Amino acid sequence: MNKRFALLGFLAFFSPFLLVGQTYDLVIYGGTSAGVAAAIQASRMGKTVILIEPGQRLGGLTTGGLGQTDIGNKQAIGGISREFYERVYQYYERPENWNWQDKEDYKGVAYSRTEEGEKSRWTFEPSAALSIYKNMLDAEHHITIVYGERLNRASGVVKEGATIRSISMENGSDYKGRVFMDATYEGDLMATAGVSYTLGRESNQTYDETLNGVQAHRYNVSLRGNVARNARNHEFVDRVDPYVIKGEPSSGLLPYIKEGGPGVEGEGDHHIQAYCYRMCLTDHPDNRIPFEKPEGYDTLNYELLFRNFEAADDLENMYTYGGGFIPWANSAMPNRKTDTNNKYGFSTDFIGQNYEYPETSYEDREKIAQAHLDYQKGLMWTLAYHPRIPDKVREEVSQWGTCKDEFEREDGWPSQLYIREARRMVSDLVMTQHHCEGLEVVEDPIGLAAYGMDSHHTQRYVDANGFVQNEGNMQSSVAGPYPVGYRSIIPKQGEADNLLVPVCLSSTHVAFGSIRMEPVFMVLGQSAAIAAALSLEEDMKLHELPYAKLKESLINYGQRIE
Questions:
Q1: To the nearest 10°, the Cα dihedral for 446, 31, 458, 360?
Q2: In this structure, are residues 176 and 81 in contact, taking their beta carbons and an 8 Å threshold?
Q3: Could you tell me if 113 and 122 are in contact, meaning their C-beta atoms sit under 8 angstroms apart?
């Protein structure tokens, strides 16, 4: 017995050194949904794999509050991604997982029957998603997971020519691999490896698009001739004054409004989609944490919110599109919980306050994330309790709060910031509006995307009439599910021949707005792992892998590519 405990103690002490001492078939940096799917797939193909999560929670937004699955056409989803949603269905078939609500009382989107014998559920609690992921990773595949280690972004990638040999973390840990994957939302490994990428919105002229760049007009026309909605769903009511003292420009602008106009229509800029936290709220009194005023709360930060309500002639019809009067999208999840997202002109999106996030230091990223959290906490407290908020709004919002049983933080808020867009790789294939609309079709499909082309606002400005406006919102339909190409998840020839990038893939701002859905990230992560495994088995670089062989394996593992 003493020998057994001695051995366990030895392994516990030296396990970190054992992890960094071996060479893995696949090293995945980023425990997002894409990273999780990739790790599972690599393990199923008999490859050694390590999954490195810079934070302390796996799953990215799938376990971070985004329980209202966006996809457009669920028939497009196959493989491990569909398996996950089938497991969500199975999870909620078990009575012990209905703690705060009877199953029969849940009125959200329950499940779909898309094929004979198939059942899947597309709405879920963050804790349910985390439980399912952990079961798939730990109980079934025993995948090695490292938490809390961040890439050394200054010198953390060792290459021989175009081949990555190892990556090192801030704490000095080194991980050797034959193939590497960047599954982060930020694209840190890709950037550190010297791969080409871009930030912000391209000009329409760059790729002959119509929905890119500045989108200040309320309507635009897609390449297929469809009308796109811009700045319509999430705009202020008319005539909201932007100045600290109404009607007095000399008093200065209210917080978070930029000087000058929106820019030239269709021209590119460095702006990216606004971030927020996807809140999991509840109105169950035994599980609810009431909204609290954050430290440093400043009423002036919410003056535009007050004025937006005050400018409305009729509260019930204060928005021309979407109905309702509370600035949130409060989608019902099981157990009397929600996935709560941005809605209308002043809501959870912290517009224009994320431009530096993708490229700045870890420390500054933490400050930006904290600023987003403080803003959103202040917003929810304001909506629930501030006397200048209409009574009907306060009465409704104050019934809600964060959940005691969902996240690690005592205040019930998630730790995962909703990074809707950051770096985007520029490879030999750039996915564009043409692909989304079916006007061009890739020759090397590895999965399907189906959500409409969509962007949240990127800036808040003063228009020519002296009133506040948001800019950057764009929504346009796609013709149907369309394929995403293999070349869009591998770098340009000669830049990195053993790196896959399924999240910050090569795409324009417009195309990324359609592709960037969690089910698709899982699809692309799995497909990337299949490519990695095949390249090792065939002893060839990722760029040399015959597509016919990749296609055969994709289909065998349940991917839907047509």
A1: -120
A2: no
A3: no
Q: What is the pTM of this model?
A: 0.94
Of 17-21, 126-130, 245-249, 433-437, least confident by mean pLDDT is: 17-21
Q: How far apart are CA 26 and CA 533, in angstroms?
A: 8
Nearest to 554 by CA among 430, 445, 435: 445
User: Rounded to whole angstroms, what are the CA distances from 148 to 29, 58, 460?
Assistant: 11, 11, 35
Q: Tens digits of per-residue pLDDT, 30-47?
A: 999 999 999 999 999 999
Residue recorded with tokens 């017995």: 1
Query: For residue range 256-287, what is the model confidence (pLDDT) as tens digits?
Result: 999 999 999 999 999 999 999 999 999 999 99
State the helix-helix crossing angle for 79-93 and 33-44, rounded to 10 degrees: 100
Q: In whole angstroms, give the CA distance from residue 193 to residue 500.
A: 11
Q: How far is CA 288 from CA 235, 284, 385, in A?
A: 31, 6, 16
Asked if 28 contacts 35 with a C-beta cutoff of 8 angstroms, the reply is yes
Token duo for residue 426:
């520029």
Contact status, residue 109 vs residue 39, Cβ threshold 8 Å = no
> How far is it, in rounded angstroms, from Cα 160 to Cα 233?
50
Phi-psi region of 355 (alpha: psi -120 to 50; beta: other; left: phi over 0): alpha
- Asked which of 109-118, 464-473, 511-520 is least confident by mean pLDDT, the reply is 109-118
Task: Provide the mean pLDDT of the chain.
Answer: 92
Six-digit token string for 13: 């002490």
Helices (H), 424-559: 433-436, 509-515, 518-537, 547-556
Distance CA 328, CA 546 (A): 47
CA distance 23 to 175: 7
- In three-state form (DSSP H/G/I as H, E/B as E, the rest C), the secondary structure along 44-66 is HCCCCEEEEECCCCCEHHHCCCC
